[in-house]
UniProtKB/TrEMBL annotation, chain A:
This is 2-oxoisovalerate dehydrogenase subunit alpha. Gene3D superfamilies: 3.40.50.970. Its EC number is 1.2.4.4. InterPro entries: Alpha-ketoacid_DH_E1_comp (IPR050771), DH_E1 (IPR001017), Oxoisoval_DH_suAlpha_N_dom (IPR022593), THDP-binding (IPR029061). One of its GO terms (biological process) is branched-chain amino acid catabolic process. CDD domains: TPP_E1_PDC_ADC_BCADC (cd02000). GO terms for molecular function: branched-chain 2-oxo acid dehydrogenase activity. It comes from the Bacteria. The branched-chain alpha-keto dehydrogenase complex catalyzes the overall conversion of alpha-keto acids to acyl-CoA and CO(2). It contains multiple copies of three enzymatic components: branched-chain alpha-keto acid decarboxylase (E1), lipoamide acyltransferase (E2) and lipoamide dehydrogenase (E3). It comes from Novosphingobium flavum. Its cofactor is thiamine diphosphate.
Amino acid sequence: MAKSGKTDTAAPPNRPGLTFHVPEPPFRPGDAVDYSFLDIPPPDRIPRPDETVEARQVHDLAYGLVRVLGDDHEASGSWDPRLDPAMLLRMLRKMALLRAFDDRMFRAQRQGKTSFYLKSTGEEAVAIGAALALDREDMCFPSYRQQGILLARDYPLVRMIDQIYSNRDDPLFGRQLPILYSAREYGFFTLSGNLTTQYPQAVGWAMASAAKGDTRIAATWCGEGSTSEGDFHNALTFAAVYNAPCVFNVVNNQYAISTYPGFAGSERTTFAARAIGYGIPGIRVDGNDILAVWSATRWAADRARLNLGPTLIELFTYRAEAHSTSDDPSVYRSAQERQEWPLGDPITRLKRHCIARGIWDLERQEAMDLEVASEVASAQKEAETHGILGHGLHQPDTTMFQDVFEHMPWHLREQCEQAIRERALKWPERP
Amino acid sequence: MTASMTMTQALNSALAVMMARDDGVMVLGEDVGYFGGVFRVTAGLQEKFGKHRCFDTPITECGIIGAAIGMAAYGLRPVPEIQFADYIYPGLDQIISEAARIRYRSAGDFTCPITIRLPFGGGIFGGQTHSQSPESLFTHISGVKTVVPSNPHDAKGLLIAAIEDNDPVIFMEPKRCYNGPFDGYYDRPAKSWAGHPDAEVDEGYYRVPLGKARIVREGQDLTVLAYGTMVHVTRQVLAEHGIDGELIDLRTLVPLDIETIETSVKKTGRCMIVHEATRTSGFGAELSALVQERCFYHLEAPIERVTGFDTPYPHSLEWSYFPGPIRIGEALARLMRG
């Protein structure tokens, strides 16, 4: 039976017993959803400070919510980046393309064409807004839900699908789980699959860039749940110590698989406020407002380029769909959450803003939706001529042993011969 | 009362039995609470025992294990789950430098009765971060026990014994066998546990002792040392080749049941070791050395090691990586010729 805890001295008899606190999310399946507890300020409640401001003067940015697009779909306030219509429409198109891509790849997984997929639905502004605010040459260390960066940087859709299918044109030889891309030419660091490992790596890249007198900066992303990992804190410590030119992004999409942000500390403070203890600026941003995302990212990037060091940006958003194709959120969250989410949908919001500005209309929106769907469909069709996921049919077994090291040692050569012999026995018709 | 259970259900039953018997047993980990775990092993425990006994944690393996050590120092018996064995590495310092040495460095002043559950192994298209078998990292540490069940009956009895053990236990669950005994043929219909004799599980409390192997099949021709998923794969291959092999399910890697191994190898004169983990410095190397040291003059042929390759676990080529029937069959043929 249970052993009771040892006590060194007898407690006074009138001392109250301690209680053990375990956080509890606001809603569970079947609960009525009411987000009135969230403070959603109008644009410009906290004006945009000059980039050269000292971190300790902007603590309030970590507790506010930077917004540009108001509930009236107008852009206003000092954070409004006043982007030209071409840029707004580019943002809109990239987000629509991303949503179409995610939808199509999700279906491909359900059709058995691949083993796994992970959508970014509802979070399109996070990756695309940031990627468009950074320079093309800046280096990104993303987590697994920022495929939007690749789209924003015009990475070929066919190659993404080749990777998702692990087919014979997969640039990663089928080694990686679908969506764990690598694209050095596009400033996109190889995705790990483990959490927050990229955070200190981004800092190291930024330190190197600074050490070499380069002009490029680094940016990295993780989820709010992943801020619990030690690597998050290691990264912020290093960045603060070395004044690293690095933009940290925490995508607070309200869910770490089934777990709400209370288990990462959100009951007490914001994720942006994590920055304060490290003496760096933290900004909390409406992650479904792509103009706010762009503006905050550009503010942080400008600071980094001015040798003012790192900034932490919390993107407050909502994971509108499942964690991945392996997940069913209906068993742990209320279905009503998505429709009640007070920050809306990033594509709808930008669309309404463009219409309000008179640079867009529903007919063009409809035409664009068809165009991006057909762009994805034709990329998918082309990728499928390179094959869909098969049980090792697409890559020769030698690819399994290459790149473990630069030069293959004797034991891997022996094992490679074994693998080739096994394949000849298993599929004599297809060596 | 017995019931037919999958390994998932048997593990769940073990946790429920122990939580009911001992209010110091606490289950913690990522998504283990309301949701019941990504593999469903902790399903219903929060509802039954309350959120103070079974609760979600922040995503920090280092924090989960460190906090479990502290709870154990207080006198509880925490059972942390690490969602995939592949995620354990940020927690290694807390295991290697801390949990494993607390009894030793405090001369028994403090102890660390924690059981760290790790779903491990490949065959689910998980790629390199959801497929690994890191058991030899733990067997190499002095002061932690390493346990690997292969079937529902043993999984429950071993988990209960691990929770009751006063030392830290790494409890590795072969996730390919959660729902059925995987025989190595991924391209044939999956087998379920239904009707399997080892899936008849007592619904109450029972222990399968740590440190005791099980002879799954007696035989005269050779001895096979295996654990986890590879027990089922090897059993299938022995049957296909019509070889009268003695199949030993090690069940506990540390402390190892050396007596059962030694007796068997001295009887058969031949030994094959099978594991899914990478080959170099894998647990098979330790087994091979022990058999050589203790049974050298009884061996009729060199010891065979059948393992995964020394590469990260690939996604699309995972069945080329997996030590399946062909690799095992070739080793068997070499061993029987020798």
